[in-house]
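May I ask for a sample protein chain and its fold as tokens?
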Amino acid sequence: MRLLWLKHHFSVNIWTLLLLGSTWLPLAEGSPKSPFRTFSVTDWSLTHLVVHNKTGEVYVGAVNRIYKLSNNLTLLRTHVTGPVEDNEKCYPPPSVQSCPHGLVTTNNVNKLLLVDYSGNRLIACGSASQGICQFLRLDDLFKLGEPHHRKEHYLSSVNESGTMSGVIIEVLNGQNKLFIGTPIDGKSEYFPTLSSRKLMANEENAEMFGFVYQDEFVSSQLKIPSDTLSKFPTFDIYYIYSFSSEQFVYYLTLQLDTQLTSPDSTGEQFFTSKIVRLCVDDPKFYSYVEFPIGCVQDGIEYRLIQDAYLTKPGKALAKYLGISEREDILFTIFSQGQKNRVKPPKESVLCLFTLKKIKDKIKERIQSCYRGEGKLSLPWLLNKELGCINSPLQIDDNFCGQDFNQPLGGTVTIEGTPLFVDKEDGMTSVAAYDYRGQTVVFAGTRSGKIKKVGELLPHRVECPRADGEMCAFGFVVFRCRVECIPIAPLCQMGVLNLCLMGGL
């Protein structure tokens, strides 16, 4: 289950569900027809949804399809992306070069869906043909281009939705960029796990998706070393959520913990969550820093990131936290422990981080390293322990790295503030809403429920009244259906019975 507010623009994964609402809302199979506006499909599973931040129009990514809906969920356009004749062993894809492997009819799973506002286009990346992307005109989903002739055009053939994440950085009078994080399924010779790409105005420009910087030694990419894959063949990095804040791009990732997991492939696997940060204007990736991130409640560790949501605090929450209303805060969902990435434990926690705390922890770590203290501590990437080098450089909040003391790993987990623990259903998504200065948070579960967490402060946070003031809308997305639900009336309801088409 994932959550999205209409007033924000995020691309989200919806293998489970994308929801907004209040209190516990069971979504039971076989229940009466929903009273809300609905868009349904019967053939293909839905994977992503993004809302245009000005028109309110809705774009939905699916297996083999991209849909454009009006803000009341009327179908406006459909674009077909598959099935295609393909074989994941074909590199380059068969559309570029004949392949010795047999081709089979293959579904094209939408893995990334972003609105490029400056280009008036949609970027839709799939799993077929080694992970190529299509550029679709926002008005009618007309295909403007499909770059597929260069190795930079192939992002990843992994077909698991919800594991790739991207951020578009618009540069005034300059070159727009696309930061992409993706699992690679062991194919480090083909795909970087993290990269910064050029977004050209012309979709057919040969430089489209080229690395922002590249010479014979350094480029705007990060690859999983072959030594790491030799030792841990299943090692990969799953990019759960991404965002930009000030001059930085952040990713929340889930990856194999190489310190706890035995190289013996038959042993038990442990995973760890990381927050990754890069400077937007660092084409050589010298600013790369990652920190373990998680939450602890009553002595129990929650280390498996499920979802996150970046927002600003309401007036009351900002005052309570001692920060400005202009500061970014991050709500997160973690599952308990460090095992079972695909089917995490049902015990989960909703946590709160301030970006200020995260930035301070990162700055302290960089300052410590530039005093020559400790090591770089990034075993999966460096495969050896390199000591920090003492330097007189002054490290401030805007520091973007040098060609030494990088890449850098955090040694202490950044801990969030636990707000709510669910031990029954397993929370998988989160969204937040500022209503009249109060911050109301909504958490969705894998079993199809929503929890309104309104008591973040000592006093009770009231829901909006159903007095005609429609502050926001939420979109409920099942595997095969999208529903539009007004937030204000939800707060007056107890239980909603929504039909589950296709199940979760």
Summary: The chain is about 5% helix and 35% strand. Residues 5-32, 457-472, 489-504 have pLDDT under 50 and may be disordered. The chain has one domain: 12-461+476-490.
